[in-house]
Write a structure and sequence with these properties.
Blueprint: E1 2-3, H1 7-15, E2 18-25, E3 39-45, E4 48-55, H2 62-80, E5 86-89, H3 92-102, E6 108-111, H4 116-128, H5 151-167, H6 169-172, E7 179-183, E8 187-194, E9 202-206, H7 209-217, H8 220-226, E10 231-237, H9 244-253, E11 263-269, H10 278-296, E12 316-323, E13 325-327, E14 330-332, H11 339-354, H12 365-372, E15 383-385, H13 398-411, E16 416-417, H14 426-435, H15 439-445, H16 450-453, H17 465-476, E17 480-483, E18 486-489, H18 491-496, H19 502-516, H20 529-533, H21 535-545, H22 552-559, H23 562-572, H24 577-591, E19 595-598, H25 601-605, E20 613-616, H26 618-623, E21 624-626
Parallel strand pairs: 2-5, 5-6
Antiparallel strand pairs: 1-4, 2-3, 3-4, 7-8, 7-12, 8-9, 9-10, 10-11, 13-14, 15-21, 16-18, 17-18, 19-20
Helix pairs in contact: 2-3, 5-10, 13-17, 22-24
Length: 628
């Protein structure tokens, strides 16, 4: 990437804490098809363009985009001398994955559909490239006048947009239920919603029903190819997110705005040259007005909404609108005509979502969705964890014994000693080393650990990662807390320490380990949040694939969601994949007594961190149940 820095720029940019990043198509000069254009990776900071890279064939997949952006951000930060506090990108999914890829809590990645700094730079670039006046810019222009509309047309649109914002269709229906509108002169138009008031709410306007269905049902990366007609997006942004020229323009023209955070901006998709015609602007204004009126009217019966008699909705006739309901992942289109299309779409999407999928281990997409978003405390979910195993079935479980011993230590006298850094002090570490059970560390997790080789050597908690893991787990579970120079057990910790509540203690620690604790805290690989998010699917697949001894190299590809497998393997490489999954998922399961490992004798004596084979223990079936 080419970094555009002078010493003066470097000093100014270091004062700015928000960067904007995007991979965008270059302005339409020779070709109206965005997918056929070269792209440009651009980083901007305020009024500065920090760095650019022209991409002859820009990637479209999220992982590839993240790799490009993360590398560019790190390169730019190295030149500037510091990372920003906030990085803004336009896509929500991209923001989530990029946040994990950067791997630092000091930088927050935000989703912001309106990127004023970037849009202004792209518009300026297009102007310098000589884009013709009748071929508007791919990026939204920095002023409304850039759309080449009359002031009255823009004022009319602002009036409609203000009414829409006050009607709040986002609260009325949410982003999964679009509305269909019937124009006397122009046929059907469709509108769908995303976001909510105060968080960049947007309304997307489509010309074709097929585009609505594609937008709701296809993966994000496949939507662009599936769209068959033009598509408009109206985003409501706070005033300070507008390009400075646009702010001056809106204030100077006194166009109506519903709230300080509700300044409308327009983006186009699949339009010639990225522009908007006068006819489309007139129709878009009518659609926004109609959606506002429809929302204000509530949800009428199909034959009672009279748009044609309402002078505020020119050209729209009764029945003027219908909600198109999307229930969960099933699209139910309540269409005016033809009536058979509703059944066709519903049946097709329903079949796709309920049919077993070999790539999902024979599970259907709707079952995977239930697994990933289930309540771990509920007995009605497909993956159920028995909360009251008897104490006799938990004898010898390493994590339970060590957690109980540390709780007892924190209850003795004033508690266990703490260092200024928040770790257990050496006295507490020595007692836990001598009184705890660390067989798994001696033979698998850390066969070379100092606490096994030198029993008399003073240790810090940082040298004893197994103990550190237990202490952090108890803190996250709300059972131990640090008070000044001491660690003390909480009321919950004292209650669950009772021998009759071993099953509850085991259940609580397991839930916190798998859902509340960062499984990546003790290794140097990327965070890979999707790996932990997919744990419920992994547990269900383990119940089927690990009944008999199996090497981790064979097991790992069978127990991860396809998208998780692709992302993790892409980040760490295929050679490291089994080790990462073993470290973050299989090893904790072993500590909870749910998985057993088999080692070769030479591996026991060496520094190998992965077992030769693994399989489930009987405790797995007693604790974890799968039912649909």
């Amino acid at each position: 990437m080419e970094i555009h820095l002078t010493p003066a720029m470097r000093r100014e940019i270091r004062k700015e804490r928000v960067w904007e990043a995007e991979v965008a198509p270059l302005p339409a000069v020779f070709d109206d098809m965005p997918d056929g254009r070269p792209g440009i990776l651009m980083l901007t900071v305020g009024d500065w363009v920090l760095g650019t890279e022209v991409l002859p064939r820009p990637p479209r997949e999220i992982p590839e985009l993240v790799e490009l952006l993360a590398g560019a951000i790190r390169e730019a930060a190295s030149e500037v001398g510091r990372m920003p506090r906030t990085i803004r990108v336009r896509d929500r999914e991209l923001a989530v994955v990029l946040d994990g890829k950067l791997g630092t809590r000091k930088v927050r990645v935000e989703c912001d559909p309106s990127l004023p700094s970037l849009d202004g730079a792209l518009a300026s670039l297009a102007e310098r490239m000589g884009a013709a006046a009748d071929r508007p810019l791919t990026a939204s222009p920095p002023r409304w006048a850039g759309w080449e509309m009359e002031e009255g047309e823009i004022r009319g649109f602002f009036t409609a947009a203000a009414r829409l914002y006050r009607a709040d269709p986002w609260a009325a229906r949410g982003e999964t239920e679009p509305v269909e509108l019937d124009s006397v002169e122009d046929g059907f138009w469709y509108a769908s919603f995303s976001g909510e008031k105060g968080d960049f709410p947007a309304v997307s306007v489509f010309r074709e029903l097929d585009d609505v269905v594609a937008n709701l049902t296809l993966p994000r990366e496949a939507v662009g190819e599936a769209l068959v007609d033009r598509h408009f997006i109206v985003v409501f942004s706070p005033r300070d997110h507008l390009p400075h020229p646009m702010t001056l323009e809106v204030v100077g023209q006194t166009w109506p705005v519903a709230a300080p955070e509700a300044y409308p901006r327009l983006m186009t998709v699949n339009t010639p040259g990225g522009g908007v015609s006068r006819g489309d602007m007139e129709a878009l204004t009518s659609v926004v007005e109609a959606v506002a009126a429809f929302t204000e009217a509530g949800e009428p019966a199909p034959d009672t909404f009279g748009g044609g008699d309402d002078p505020s909705i020119p050209g729209w006739a009764a029945p003027g609108a219908r909600w198109l309901v999307r229930d969960g992942s099933h699209l139910v289109a309540d269409l005016l005509e033809p009536p058979t299309l509703h059944d066709e779409i519903e049946g097709l999407v329903g079949e796709l979502n309920t049919s077993p999928d070999l790539e999902l281990g024979g599970l259907s997409p709707d079952r995977v969705h239930r697994l990933l978003y289930q309540d771990w405390e509920s007995e009605d979910e497909p993956l159920h964890f028995k909360p009251d195993l008897p104490n006799g079935e938990l004898q010898g479980v390493e994590i339970l014994g060590n957690a109980r011993r540390l709780l007892e230590l924190c209850l003795e006298g004033d508690g266990a000693g703490a260092t200024a850094a928040g770790n257990l002090n050496r006295v507490a570490v020595a007692r836990m080393r001598d009184e705890g059970s660390w067989e798994s560390l001696a033979t698998s997790d850390q066969p070379h650990a100092d606490h096994e080789i030198h029993r008399d050597k003073p240790l810090n908690e940082g040298d004893f990662r197994g103990l550190q893991w237990v202490r952090i787990l108890l803190e996250l579970a709300g059972m131990v807390e640090r008070r000044g120079p001491l660690f003390r057990a909480t009321a919950l910790g004292g209650d669950l320490l009772h021998p009759t509540r071993s099953g509850e203690l085991f259940h609580h620690l397991f839930r916190v380990q798998m859902r509340g604790m960062n499984l990546a805290f003790s290794d140097r690989y990327p965070t890979e949040e999707t790996l932990q998010f997919g744990v419920p699917f992994t547990l269900v697949r383990l119940a089927r694939e690990a009944r008999e001894w199996i090497p981790p190299q064979e097991l790992v590809p069978r127990i991860l969601l396809p998208r998780v497998l692709e992302e993790v393997e892409g980040d760490v490489g295929s050679a490291s994949l089994p080790g990462v999954v073993t470290h973050r998922i299989l090893r904790p399961l072993r500590r909870f007594g749910l998985l057993e490992w088999e080692w070769d004798e030479d591996e026991r004596r060496g520094l190998q961190l992965s077992p030769r084979r693994v399989r489930l223990t009987p405790l797995f079936d007693r604790f974890i149940h799968v039912h649909w």
